[in-house]
Amino acid sequence: MNEKTIHITIMGGIIIILALLFYSMGEKQIILTTSGQAPTISVTGDAEVDVMPDQVVISLTVLTEGKDAASVQTDNSKKMNQVLDALKNEGVTEKEIETLNYNIYPWQEWEPTTQKMVNKGYRAQHTIQVKRNDIKSAGKILDLTVKNGINTVDNVYFTLSDDKEKEVKEELVALASLKAKEKANSLAKNLGVSVGKVHMVSESSYNPPMYYASYAKAEMAADMSPIPSLSPKSVKVNLQVNVEYGIE
User: Fold this and answer.
1) What whole-number distance in Å separates Cα of residue 195 and Cα of residue 32?
2) Phi–psi pair at 37, nearest 5 degrees
3) DSSP state of 26
4) pTM above 0.85?
5) Where are the beta strands (DSSP E) in the chain?
6) β-pairing verdict for 116-132 and 55-66
7) Residue among 167, 151, 183 nearest 239 (CA)
8) What is the per-residue pLDDT for 34?
9) Where are the domains of the chain?
10) CATH architecture of 55-159
11) What CA–CA distance (Å, rounded) separates 153 from 144?
């Protein structure tokens, strides 16, 4: 065995021993590999930031009942059109309104006396979603739509707009990548080697926030009807990247 072969064998043994040592200490975010002739260091970088949501999403339904399908459809359409007109008068644009569901179906109920399902007529259900970056308008939209025909508020939640999500994700990627590089440099320094080029990088997790609203308080309007005041809370957004560096 020549001197060069002995040197390679010793270095390989040291790297394997150190890898086992890190694993036994519970550090599972740093991995050493010696596949082929190009040893690498694989590390994980985590980043987390607190973000205030800038978008509100509200799902609203008009549900109507009647003896025949035609009258139920007409009644439902009138109520929903009234809701849509009220929203537009409030400044909500067509781009901020989306139809999620529309159904007309037979309405049946269980009759305890006869122990049978009894036909009651028909039900029409029309669900829309209002998505706005003006989160302060959430309570007013709820109050306005309920007064104009909405009889079911399916859910209200706060989240990030596309622009805000892109901005936050770029920040998290930068932070996570920096932490991964710091880990790789620290390990390489202890090994007496240098971190080389990036061989591989991947994003393993990203969790955009979604905060479901609750009625924080009720403010009294001029007509003395309660307007719900909904306020979002900051949420944690996290991201993880995996990076594999060469060893020099």
Assistant:
1) 12
2) -105, 10
3) T
4) no
5) 30-33, 40-51, 55-66, 97-111, 116-132, 152-159, 195-207, 211-212, 217-220, 226-229, 235-247
6) antiparallel
7) 167
8) 52
9) 3-51+163-247, 55-159
10) 2-Layer Sandwich (3.30)
11) 12
- Sheet arrangement for strand 30-33: 30-33, 40-51, 235-247, 195-207
pLDDT at 208: 73
Are residues 29 and 120 in contact, defined by beta-carbon separation less than 8 angstroms? no
Here the tokens at position 217 are 């308080």
CA distances to 61, 122, 166, 175, 185 from 70, in Å:
19, 9, 46, 59, 72
Q: The domain at 3-51+163-247 falls in which architecture?
A: 2-Layer Sandwich (3.30)
Tallying the residues shown for the chain, one arrives at: 248
Q: Are 16 and 31 in contact (CB under 8 A)?
A: no
Residues of the chain with pLDDT under 70: 1-37, 209, 213-227
DSSP string, 167-221: HHHHHHHHHHHHHHHHHHHHHHHHHT--EEEEEEEEEEEEE---EE----EEEE-
Report which of 207, 206, 205, 212 is spatially closest to residue 231, judged by C-alpha positions: 212
| pLDDT for residue 172 | 93
Distance CA 165, CA 54 (A): 10
182-236 pLDDT, tens digit per residue, is: 999 998 888 888 888 998 988 877 777 677 765 433 333 334 356 677 777 888 8
Residue 47 pLDDT: 93
